[in-house]
Amino acid sequence: MSIVKYTVIGGGINGLAVARQLLIDHPDAEVTLFEKESSVAQHQTSHNSGVVHAGLYYAKGSLKAKLCRRGVHLVKEYCEANDLPYDQCGKLVVALTEVEVERLKRLYQIALDNEVPDVCMLYGDEIKKVEPNCIGIAALHSPTTAIVSYEAIAKQIAKDILEKGGKIQLSAEVKELKNNADGIQIIMKDGSVYPETFNYAVSCAGLQSDRLAKNSGDEANPKIVPFFGQYFVLDDQFTNDVKGLIYPVPDPKYPFLGVHFTKRIDGKMTIGPNAFLSLGRENYTGKNFNFKDITDYLVYPGFWRFSFRNIPAAIRESKTVLSQQTFIDECVKYVPSLSKMTVKPATRGIRAQAMNQDGSLVDDFVIRKDGNITHIRNAPSPGATSSMAIAEYIVREVMQTVEAKATVDANDSGIEMVVQGS
Ligand SMILES: Cc1cc2nc3c(=O)[nH]c(=O)nc-3n(C[C@H](O)[C@H](O)[C@H](O)COP(=O)(O)OP(=O)(O)OC[C@H]3O[C@@H](n4cnc5c(N)ncnc54)[C@H](O)[C@@H]3O)c2cc1C
C-alpha cells in the first residue's frame, strides 16, 4: 500500500498542532510542514495575551464554544506532560455600572451553558476576596482561567513533530496549492515547484490565510483585515497590585473586548490589548507600513461598511492609541490603587480577523474543506487555547468528510455545514 502524504502550511500553533495530530492518528503517513519564517511561531502565536480562555463568551453551539472547552483540557494536559508552565491564576470580568451587571449575568449564563467549571457571580466587597485592589458592582469569577506561553508550547510541538518523523521546512513560503491528477503540488513563492506531491493539505496561514486560500482556488471571502493590539508592561513595583486577570464587561457596540490586566507567565503584569487597524499584516513596530496590505483592505467594500458602522469604536480605540495615559486610565477604573502606575510599551500583536463582504467581523472559527485541501479561514482568540482541539476536529471530522466541498462555517447562532458538489 502506498504511503499517504500530508502537508501543512503554517508553523503557528494551529499548523503545528494539526501536523502533530496527523502523526498521532496516522503514524505510517508522511507529514511535511512549510513555514515561511526561519523559525516557527513568529506571528500571532508569540504575540498574544497567553490566556487559556475558559469559555465565558462563546455562544452555545458555536465552534468556539465546543473547541475552546476541549482545547483547555488538551493544553493543560500537554503542559503537564511536557513540564511547561501552566498558571491557573483565575479571571474576573468586572461590571462598573448597572447596565454592565445585566450584561454580566448573560455572560454567566453562557459560562454555565458551556460548563465552565466553578464560575460564580461576586457582588461588591466579595470581589476583594479574589482581587483585593479591584473595585466594581459585580464580577464574574472564573477560577480556572489560566496563563501559558503559547510560543513555548508551539516550539515543544515542533520538537514532537520531528521526533515522530515529520518534516518541518523553514524559510519556505508557499504561494499556491495546486490540485492536479498526481496530487497536490506546492508552488513556492519564487515560482519553483516543490519536488514532492501530497494527497492532502491543511492550510493554517494565519494573517496570510485568505491570500493562500484564494491563490489555491478557494473563495475570496472572508478577507483578513489586520487589527493590532498594543500592550504595556507595568513597572515591577506595581506588578503585585493585581493577582490574575481583570477584564471589562464586553460592550456589544464594540467588536473587541477592551483593554484588560493580564498576568504573563514570566510573572510580569501587562495591560492591553487595544484594537486598531494595522498598517500592515506583520507590522509589529507600527513605524512603517505595507502598501499591499493597506490597499488590500482599502479596496474591499466590506472594510468601508465596517468602518461606517464602527465609528464610535474607532474613536474609543484611537484615544488609547494616541494617548498612553488614556490607555492607563481605562485600566485604573478597575484598580484605582494603580493611578500612579508607570509602564513600558511591549511588542504589539496583530489579529488575523476575517471580515465578510457585508462588513461584519466573522466571530466564529471558519474551517473550509475544498476537495483534498482544508483551509483555516478564521481562528481569532481563543484560537490558541483551542489549537489542539481545532487540530483534532480538522483531522478527525473535517478531513473525514467525503464531499467535494464542505464549509464548516459557524457563527453566533450555531454551526452551519454546507455541503456542495458530489
Ligand atoms: C493581540 C492578540 C491577543 C490574543 N490573545 C489570545 C489569548 O489570550 N488566548 C488565545 O487563546 N488566543 C489569543 N489570541 C489568538 C491566537 O494568538 C491565535 O488564534 C493563534 O495564535 C492562531 O494561530 P495560527 O497558527 O492559526 O496563526 P499564526 O500564529 O499567525 O501562524 C501562522 C503561520 O503561518 C505562516 N505562514 C503564513 N503564510 C504562509 C505561507 N504562504 N507559507 C508558509 N508559511 C506561511 C506564518 O509565518 C505563521 O508562522 C490572540 C491574538 C492576538 C493577535
From TrEMBL:
| Keyword Protease among UniProt keywords | no
From what organism does this protein derive? Wohlfahrtiimonas larvae
Keyword list, A-Z: FAD, Flavoprotein, Oxidoreductase
Name the family the entry cites. Belongs to the L2HGDH family.
Query: Which superkingdom heads the taxonomic lineage of this protein's source?
Result: Bacteria
Location of the FAD dependent oxidoreductase domain: 6-395
Is Methyltransferase there in the keyword field? no
Its cofactor is: FAD
Q: What is this protein called?
A: L-2-hydroxyglutarate oxidase
Gene3D superfamilies annotated for this entry? D-Amino Acid Oxidase, subunit A, domain 2, FAD/NAD(P)-binding domain
> Do you know which Pfam families this protein is assigned to?
DAO
